[in-house]
Amino acid sequence: MHTTQLDDWQHEHTFGQDEVSRGERRTLWVAILTAVFMVVEVAAGLAYGSMALLADGLHMGSHAVALGIAVAAYVYARRRAGDERFSFGTGKVNALGGYTGALLLAVFAVMMAWESVNRFMNPVPIVFNQAIAVAVLGLVVNGISVAMLGVHHDHGHDHGHGHGHTHDDLELSDASAKHDSGHDHNHGHHDHGHHDHNLRSAYLHVLADALTSLTAIFALLGGKYFGQTWLDPAMGIVGSLLVARWSWGLIRQSSKVLLDHQEPEQVRQRIRAALEAGDDRVVDLHVWSIGPGVRAACISVVGHEPSTPNDYKSRLPEDLAIHHATVEVHHCSTHAAVGAA
After folding, report:
1. Taking 60 as the threshold, does the pLDDT of residue 119 lie above it?
2. Which CATH superfamily is domain 265-340 in?
């Protein structure tokens, strides 16, 4: 077979990871903004004696590091998108960045709780007016950062197109080897169940900053006007508990991608319903995420008169965003493979 004919059946595995996403651009700007204001808050917390404000500044500083990791993950995934050493592209670098950010969130939650408990036992004088002013400014900065990331509006994916292509059916003999072409370009049909975990991590970090700024303001106002100075460390503990909860949720989500966790049952049911026509039955099915809005599938079909692998691929619902499908076909009377892709 000529090389030009083989080229028609070969494809890249970049799946859009080679493009600069809105998530990458936004995260970069938020990282810069966070790093700049972190210096202001830490200095103010030390100068004015506010634990809540200092915790907010340290928290913001640690988040600046986490946001830097998120930016690095985006850049690495984009620059290595065409690297053949990554079997399914660099989409999982996104989940790895999110997982790393989630672990950092957990560490920050522990640090916040520890410092707050220590301040309960060793209180220090607080310069309320200046501390409140800086905390309010911190909340404004965090609010801008949350708006810039806007993770919930993007549904975690920034590309408006799919990657792959559909080829004409090729008649396969009994001796045909498994082939992995036949991908569909699903323009505009990304599944919103696939989240950009890296962007999600960045979003939670700035949201945690906003939370600590808000609790710092509440605590400082209570201390200034009602003499309730215990509110300052108490709000630090409350904030740490909420951040820990966010961290655990993101760890669970991103680890499922990293460990090739099966996609939800409803996704697999839709695939079965699409392929099981007549007496054809799906006897083995694996569907997993290989990046934001990108799935891979490995499917075995058995039937008395089974169709070709490419025919089964063409039946896969476009909105499931299965861009890398391998279909194995068996004849049920002989249990011999008649084709695969």
Report:
1. yes
2. Cation efflux protein, cytoplasmic domain (3.30.70.1350)
Across the range 38-52, mean pLDDT stands at 74
Q: What is the pLDDT of residue 293?
A: 79
- Strand-pair category, 294-303 with 322-331: parallel
Mean pLDDT of the chain: 76
Residues 6+ apart with CB under 8 A from 258: 92, 95, 96, 99
State residue 185's pLDDT score.
Answer: 37
CA dist 177 and 258 (Å) reads 29
Q: Which of 24, 52, 27, 56 is nearest to 39 (CA)?
A: 56
Residues in CB range of 245: below 8 A, 6 or more apart: none
Instruction: Note the maximum CA span of the chain.
Output: 85
d(CA 20, CA 115) in angstroms, rounded, equals 39
Say which residues have a Cβ less than 8 Å from residue 114's Cβ, sequence separation at least 6. none
The dihedrals phi and psi of 262, each to the nearest 5 degrees, come to: -60, 145
Confirm if 119 and 51 have CB atoms less than 8 A apart: yes
Domain positions in the chain are 3-179+189-258, 265-340
Instruction: Say whether pLDDT at 41 is over 50.
Output: yes
What confidence tens digit (pLDDT) does each residue in 209-232 have?
A: 788 778 888 888 888 888 888 887
Q: What is the pTM of this model?
A: 0.68
Cα(217)–Cα(138) distance, rounded to whole angstroms?
10
